[in-house]
Design a protein that fits this description.
Elements: H1 13-45, H2 67-96, E1 105-112, E2 115-120, E3 129-132, E4 134-138, E5 143-149, E6 154-157, E7 165-167, E8 173-177, E9 183-189, E10 201-207, H3 209-220, H4 229-241, E11 269-270, E12 275-276, H5 279-287, H6 289-292, H7 305-315
This protein binds dinuclear copper ion.
Pfam family, one: COX2
GO molecular function, one term: copper ion binding
Protein name: cytochrome-c oxidase
Length: about 325
């Protein structure tokens, strides 16, 4: 069974540090609930004074002399687990907080309504590239993530790997993630950010170093020129309709208001984790994005079937 968003299905260094504390908190909560339920049940089942007969006065109320003492004993007992979890929490925070020194991979994630721009840093300008809604990381290496808010406040969360960090306009927050085994870990915006907050997901693809390096080398390549008439028509359409928001490296489309599409077809999902990336959903998304994500900035284009076909023929070359 897969639990893509379960923070109990731990797959990374930070999540593993938090996990024992999490289970302890759950155990304490269950124990406290059980104790209270038992005391309550005991109180309900205890012997009660018989109801007075008609005309008879109520018997005088017996006041327990040490009622107040029991209250203080109760408060004292409650403080023990509270204080213990406080100390434990501070210790865990101190462990997961510090950022990795000299990370080999650094990326900048910018959250927008409702998608994620991911920029990979490199020593040279030609080694920097953007992708969207999909983060590749090498396994067992801490990756530094600088977080930016493009419009409103969002929150970066990959439950199986680490906790949440907000992305705030005008401020750069930093977080780190590390996956201890290969896999695909789903991430989700964790701060309500508007109508399509729920459709603001992404994936972290953790792979061995060699595979990660191959992916990176491939992402650095620019898009191939159109190779057929249909592709050329599709590109012309793209340049006039889509190029003012999207970017495809190696072409005249250089805008950054929407996801970089240079290697669109290499991604597993479309529309920020909303749709699987296949020809049917690609066509559906371009045809009618407002039906899939109402309020998204991508407008319905009203394209003819022929235009849609040529546009798709071109987009499918972006591998
Ligand atoms: Cu972005 Cu919620």
């Amino acid at each position: 069974m897969s639990h893509p968003l379960s923070y109990l299905d731990v797959a990374g260094a930070q999540a593993a540090t938090v996990e024992p504390l999490l289970w302890a908190t759950i155990a304490i909560s269950v124990a406290v609930t059980a104790i209270i339920a038992l005391l309550l049940a005991g109180g309900l089942w205890r012997r009660r004074a018989p109801a007075p007969a008609e005309g008879e006065a109520l018997p005088p109320l017996e006041r327990g002399v040490d009622g107040a003492r029991w209250i203080w004993i109760g408060v004292g007992i409650s403080l023990v687990p509270l204080f213990a979890t406080l100390v434990w929490t501070v210790a865990v925070l101190a462990q997961v907080g510090p950022l990795p020194r000299n990370p080999r991979v650094t990326l900048d994630v910018t959250a927008n309504q409702w998608w994620w721009d991911v920029r990979y840093d490199g020593p040279q300008p030609d080694q920097i590239f953007h992708t969207a809604n999909e983060i590749h990381v090498p396994v067992a290496e801490p990756v530094l993530v600088r977080l930016h808010g493009g419009d409103v406040i969002h929150s970066f969360w990959v439950p199986r790997l680490s906790g949440k960090t907000d992305l705030i306009p005008g401020q750069t927050n930093q977080a780190w993630i590390e996956a201890d085994r290969p896999g695909i870990y789903r991430g989700q915006c964790a701060e309500y950010c508007g109508a399509q907050h729920a459709h603001m997901a992404f994936e972290v693809v953790a792979e061995p170093r060699a595979a990660f390096d191959r992916w990176r080398a491939r992402q650095l390549q620019t898009a191939p020129p159109p190779a057929s008439e249909a592709q050329a028509a599709g590109f012309a359409l793209f340049a006039s309709r889509c190029g003012m928001c999207h970017s495809i490296r190696g072409t005249s489309a250089r805008a950054s208001a929407a996801p970089d599409l240079t290697h669109l077809m290499s991604r597993r999902t479309l529309a920020a984790g909303t749709l699987p990336n296949n020809p049917q959903s690609l066509t559906g998304w371009i045809e009618n994005p407002q039906a899939i994500k109402p309020g998204a900035l991508m407008p319905d284009q009203g394209l003819s079937a022929a235009d849609l076909n040529s546009l798709r023929a071109y987009l499918e070359t972006l591998r």
